[in-house]
Amino acid sequence: MTTYRDLVDELIEMPRIRDALDLDSIPAPSTLCKAFDRLEMAVWRVLLNVSLRTCR
Fold first, then answer.
1. Residue 26 near residue 8, CB atoms below 8 Å
2. Residues 6+ apart with CB under 8 A from 11
3. Domain coordinates of the chain in residue numbers?
4. What does each of the 56 residues of the chain score in pLDDT, given as a tens digit?
5. Phi (first) and psi of residue 15, to 5 degrees
6. What pTM was estimated for this model as a whole?
7. Angstrom distance (rounded) from CA 32 to CA 34
8. DSSP assignment, residue 12?
9. How far is Cα 18 from Cα 26, in angstroms, rounded to an integer?
10. Does residue 23 sit in helix, strand or coil?
11. Residue 21: predicted pLDDT
């Protein structure tokens, strides 16, 4: 399981992902937590379906 801190560490090491997300700076783990809490269930379903297709 990836924690918010792990995600921040990965973003530090992945400049191409930061560029794709148009991030000027790395967000704090608490910022990520709050942002993910605001996402509606429909968004999570879409993300899950996309990730499942990618893994096949």
1. yes
2. 17, 18, 23, 26
3. 4-55
4. 789 899 899 999 999 988 888 989 999 999 988 988 888 888 888 888 888 887 76
5. -65, -30
6. 0.58
7. 5
8. H
9. 8
10. coil
11. 85
Query: What tokens were used for 36?
Result: 């993910």
Amino acid at residue number 1:
M
What local confidence, expressed as pLDDT, does residue 13 receive?
92
Which residue in the block uniquely carries the two structure tokens 């530090």? 12
Helix, strand, coil fractions of the chain, as percent rounded to 5: 75, 0, 25
**Token pair for residue 7?**
């995600």
Task: Please list, residue by residue across 8-39, b when 16 or more beta carbons sit within 10 angstroms of its beta carbon and e when fewer do.
Answer: eeebeeeeeeeeeeeeeeebeeeebeeeeeee
pLDDT given at position 45: 87
